[in-house]
Amino acid sequence: MATIDEDLAQLERDIRQLKIEYDQFFGGGRKRPPNEIEWRIELLVKRYGERGGEMKSGQRFKFSGLTQSYAKYRDMFRKRTKQKEEGSVTRHYGAAARAIEAERAQKQAASQQAAEAAAAAASRASAAPAFRMTCSQPESETDKVEKLFEALVSAKQNAGEDIGKLSRASFNEFVRKKTKDLQKQQNCHDVEYVVETIDGQVKLKALVKA
Question: Minimal CB count within 10 Å: which of 128, 152, 161, 181?
Fold first, then answer.
């Protein structure tokens, strides 16, 4: 069974091929419109439109860009097909269509670059090394707690997670209370905090140091 990334890559290839085959159809090189490849695209769009929660942020961004491109092409193909059937295509249409296509190609390229940047950011987040910090008295080790907070915020931003609910004050209080609780429960002196990204999700762990 194909992975999400493989299906998205296939969707991108099919959309490009659909445009080529429709151009051939409107140019007289094909007798029939490419209904089969359009049917494949519709299946993938419907499948991942219903399974958006299974995709990572970079995959959702790429899928959104592809579906927008496909919707634009589909609208243009429907209009051109209708004009072809009604015999209303003028000699000047080819030049106008090429101008429209050039503009849309530029927008698609920009969208694709943004999707690739998002995917690269997600990949960097997954591959980023874990941040570790050990403390025993967080109320007096403010520099350490500050670096831990910044590492958490940075990791979440790279992973595309919301940081709107994070605040320094509440985080400082969390670290202070968590440290004291573990010291009391586990009879330990030091507590190690780890910020790491696992499968695209940022995790903050508190570990007892022997």
Answer: 181
**Which domain, by its residues, includes 203?**
128-209
Contact call for residues 87 and 159 (beta carbons, < 8 A): no
Total Cβ atoms within 10 A of residue 76: 16
Select from 70, 92, 124 the last residue of a domain.
124
**Domain final position from 124, 152, 167:** 124
* 57 lies in the same domain as 98: yes
Mean pLDDT value of segment 162-173:
91
Considering the domain architecture, whether residues 101 and 138 belong to the same structural domain is answered as no
C-alpha dihedral sign at 116, 109, 75, 31: negative
Q: For residues 50 and 44, what is the distance between their CA atoms, to the nearest angstrom?
A: 10
Please state, in angstroms and rounded to a whole number, the distance separating the CA atoms of residues 87 and 81. Answer: 10
Q: How much is the pTM?
A: 0.41
Write down the pLDDT at residue 91. 47
Q: Are residues 104 and 37 in the same domain?
A: yes
Pairing of strands 201-209, 131-135: unpaired
Q: 152-187 burial by CB neighbour count: b if 16+ within 10 A, else e?
A: bbbbbebbbbeeeeeeeeebbeebeeebeebbeeee
Distances (CA, A) of 181 to 142, 169, 173, 175, 176: 18, 18, 12, 10, 9
Q: How many domains does the chain have?
A: 2
Beta carbons within 10 angstroms of residue 84's beta carbon:
14
Query: In the predicted model, is pLDDT for residue 94 greater than 70?
Result: no
